[in-house]
């Protein structure tokens, strides 16, 4: 049901009372007098996530090395254990997912696996506005194979520094392109790329295609099975609330299980022969075979509880709430903040926007700090973007209303003008 929004705190309370996901909030650690709007960057801790972590710690205390064997070798096989919970969230089969390392390491893993350049086909297609670690990894992979990134990394230019046009990506899919690697949701403007259109175009041209789902996972409904891309990577600490530096994940389409991993290690060995400790690598022929070393148990344990909540809530419901609460925020921005020079920097169409609202203002940096002084946690991205993320599982509509009122207050009192322009290390 599409609700017509109204101004006023009573209306925000009405929305909270009608929110079918509202009850999840009590399972999170919500600080008093703090409105957390940064779940796109690092999701909040929950009691469920904490329980998983404490359990792993207890098992280590009680069992020592036997931790690997208890509960049907759960911790030894921890990646596949967690993959079971991730599979419904990305619409793949569980043996197509490995939970491991960081997103950046996993990009190295998939690219070193899939990038087999020939004289005729040696380019990797990327864009110029993705989060830069992806590019650093791609450039270094190309260099490792003896190519110059200025030649072998083909960069699709954004329209205006903000958005990428899918047709520009497709036009750039020339016969010399071996792999297309792009983000599903852009970290600055929350633009959602049409994965289906781009994947189909790449496949039609015999180009391998991989997706970075970092800003998409836990917010979009993703169906990797239907998409049939070749590989994907993502982190689990943003919308999925797995904790700071939580282990990331990769997806390998099962049709590629016979490939050897670019970066091999003993955890990619077949489970049954791993502890025979032979010198020859006996590749586990599923995504688990792309693991490198031992599972980072304490970076994985919070995920158990965190992911369980996503499965309980269901991705369709999460997407629905996210679209609705961000639309409410945009309604309030248009109605109440326009006169202070704020504009909305993301696309308005539901199909083209992810989980955050991109609030633009020339004084964005200092306003974002003024918000922090007032107990609101946003983040800031150059040159003028305040990212505000009301999440589906722990943000209330009343909090959204409050943030907009605090912004009005900051602008009316010019309180941001007292803040130094000197930058902090993590913004
Ligand atoms: C968050 C994010 C990452 C994070 O990389 P780590 O190696 O896990 O620190 C990488 N790529 C994109 C596009 C991201 O949004």
UniProtKB/TrEMBL annotation:
Its cofactor is pyridoxal 5'-phosphate. One of its GO terms (biological process) is quinolinate biosynthetic process. Keywords: Cytoplasm, Hydrolase, Pyridine nucleotide biosynthesis, Pyridoxal phosphate. GO terms for cellular component: cytoplasm. It holds the Pfam family KYNU_C. Its EC number is 3.7.1.3. It is found in: Cytoplasm. This is Kynureninase. It comes from Galleria mellonella (Greater wax moth). The lineage of its organism: Eukaryota, Metazoa, Ecdysozoa, Arthropoda, Hexapoda. The gene is LOC113511541.
């Amino acid at each position: 049901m599409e609700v017509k929004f109204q101004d006023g705190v009573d209306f925000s309370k009405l929305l909270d009372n009608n929110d079918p996901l509202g009850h999840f909030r009590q399972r999170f650690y919500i600080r008093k007098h703090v409105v957390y709007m940064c779940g796109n960057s690092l999701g909040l801790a929950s009691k469920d996530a904490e329980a998983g972590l404490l359990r792993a710690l207890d098992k280590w205390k009680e069992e020592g090395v036997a931790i690997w064997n208890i509960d049907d070798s759960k911790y030894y096989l921890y990646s596949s254990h967690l993959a079971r919970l991730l599979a419904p969230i990305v619409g793949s089969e569980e043996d197509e997912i490995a939970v491991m390392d960081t997103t950046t390491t996993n990009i190295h893993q998939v690219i070193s696996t899939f990038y087999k350049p020939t004289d005729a086909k040696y380019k990797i297609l990327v864009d110029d506005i993705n989060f830069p670690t992806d590019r650093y990894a791609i450039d270094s992979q190309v260099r490792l194979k003896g190519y110059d990134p200025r030649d072998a990394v083909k960069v699709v230019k954004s329209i205006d520094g903000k958005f990428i046009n899918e047709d520009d990506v497709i036009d750039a899919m020339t016969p010399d392109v071996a792999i297309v690697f792009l983000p599903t949701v852009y970290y600055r403007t929350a633009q959602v790329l049409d994965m289906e259109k781009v994947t189909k175009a790449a496949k039609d041209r015999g180009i391998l295609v991989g997706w970075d789902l970092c800003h998409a996972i836990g917010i979009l409904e993703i169906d990797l099975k239907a998409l049939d891309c070749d590989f994907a990577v993502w982190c689990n600490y943003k919308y999925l609330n797995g904790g700071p530096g939580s282990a990331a994940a990769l997806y390998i389409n099962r049709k590629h299980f016979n490939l050897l991993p670019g970066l091999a290690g003993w955890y990619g060995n077949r489970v049954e022969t791993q502890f025979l400790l032979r010198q020859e690598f006996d590749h586990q022929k599923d995504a688990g075979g792309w693991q490198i070393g031992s599972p980072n148990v304490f970076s994985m344990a919070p995920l158990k509880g965190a992911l369980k909540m996503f499965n309980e809530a269901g991705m369709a419901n999460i997407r629905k709430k996210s679209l609705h609460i961000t639309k409410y925020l945009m309604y309030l921005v248009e109605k109440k903040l326009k006169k202070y020079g704020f504009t909305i920097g993301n696309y308005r169409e539901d199909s083209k926007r992810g989980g955050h609202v991109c609030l633009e203002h020339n004084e964005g940096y200092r306003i974002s700090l003024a918000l922090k002084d007032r107990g609101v946690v946003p983040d800031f991205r150059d040159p003028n973007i305040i990212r505000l993320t009301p999440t589906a599982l722990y943000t209330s509509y009343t909090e959204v209303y409050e943030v907009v009122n605090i912004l009005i207050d900051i602008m009316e009192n010019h309180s941001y003008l007292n803040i130094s322009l000197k930058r902090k290390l993590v913004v």
